[in-house]
Amino acid sequence: MTETNGSLVIDSHCHIDGEQFDADRDEVVQRAKDAGVAAMLNVGTGDPHSDDFRRAVAVAEKYENVFASVGVHPHDAKLYDDKAENHLLDLIKSSEKVIAWGEIGLDFYYDHSPRDVQIEVFRRQIKKARELKLPIIIHSRDADDETVAILTDEFSLSAKGFAASGDADRSVRSPGIMHCFGGTPAMAESLLQLGFLISFAGNVTFKKAENLRDAARVVPLDCLLVETDCPFLTPVPLRGKRNEPSFVVHTAQFLADFYGVEPETLAAATTKNFLDFFGLKILRKVAEPQRRKVI
Ligand SMILES: [Zn+2]
Ligand SMILES: [Zn+2]
Fold first, then answer.
1. pLDDT of residue 7
2. Is 164 exposed, middle or buried (0-12, 13-18, 19+ CB in 10 A)?
3. What angle is formed at CA 105 by the lines to CA 86 and CA 254, rounded to 5 degrees?
4. pLDDT, tens digit, for every residue of 55-88?
5. What is the mean pLDDT of the chain?
6. Is-contact 74 65, C-beta < 8 A?
7. DSSP secondary structure letters along 145-168
8. Which of the ligands is closest to the CA of residue 139?
9. Ligand 1 centre and the CA of 180: distance in Å?
10. How far is the CA of 103 from the centre of ligand 2 (A)?
11. For residues 283 and 38, is the Cβ–Cβ distance under 8 A?
12. Does residue 240 have a pLDDT over 80?
């Protein structure tokens, strides 16, 4: 197995509440721990009128190093209404392990919900998240221009406000995470300007993904995260297997080689970015001895 030489990595986006993990979830979480994965953010998806999101939060409640995010995916935007929103709000209130709103955004590749509905629901969820001072997790596929336009509209004013006021509020300074980045270098640059962190999944390791590596080239280490988005997008050399959080070390190793840095440098940077972003002090205690060990 690929090692990160004792440095801890964080899977910033996974879906281990799904039925693909029902048979062996305990082992999956243990394997992640054994591989040096300090924490996982389990992103709830599905029908907001069902138990889907409750399940995602329950997984975070069960395992110490698993956190949760809730928000309606663009695929299911057509299901978003007041009742759905109240359900999400109740779940957020129910557990301190819910640390973000998402994944939300636009998916014009599958078009499972009408585009105008996706846009309206994306904006509505951004506003709700901001009211709660929760960071957002963005999903964007084949909708680069529209995603950037909406985020610029929603966040560029507050970024200026931040600079002027010196407000240290993290949710204002860094509004969220662009997950499983799949856009152009120009899109990455626009998002970085707005203060977003950019997360790469296993597909950045794929042979044909030169476009993703072009984008990775413009992302500095202090704005970078890694994720599995499991059970999908299994990184090289494990393609064909079900993806799981322990495999994030392969993506971290690949990106370290790509950037020409030591694996522990990449691991320490992405872990620090995640912990700082979410203000997770508990985990920092876990991460610091590892960082000292590296030095
Ligand atoms: Zn996604
Ligand atoms: Zn996802």
1. 80
2. exposed
3. 125
4. 999 999 999 999 999 999 999 999 999 999 999 9
5. 90
6. no
7. HHHHHHHHHHHHHHHHHHHHHT--
8. 1
9. 6
10. 7
11. yes
12. yes
Cα–Cα distance, 287 to 7 (Å, whole number):
8
Q: Which ligand is nearest to the CA of 15?
A: 2
Question: Which residue in this structure is represented by tokens 């322990």?
Answer: 246
- The ligand that comes nearest to the alpha carbon of residue 243 is 2
Residue 219 has what DSSP assignment?
A: S
Whether the pLDDT of residue 97 is over 70: the answer is yes
H/E stretch holding 176 reads: strand 176-178
CA distances from 136 to 3, 23, 58, 102, 200 (A): 30, 30, 20, 6, 16
Structure tokens at 99: 């640390």
Give the distance (Å) from ligand 1 centre to CA of residue 14: 9
pLDDT, one tens digit per residue, over 21-60 is 999 999 999 999 999 999 999 999 999 999 999 999 999 9
Which amino acid, one-letter code, is at 20?
Q
Pairing of strands 66-70, 98-107: parallel
| 224 CA to centre of own chain | 11
| Residue 228 contacts residue 251 (beta carbons within 8 Å) | yes
CA of 294 to the centre of ligand 1 (A): 33
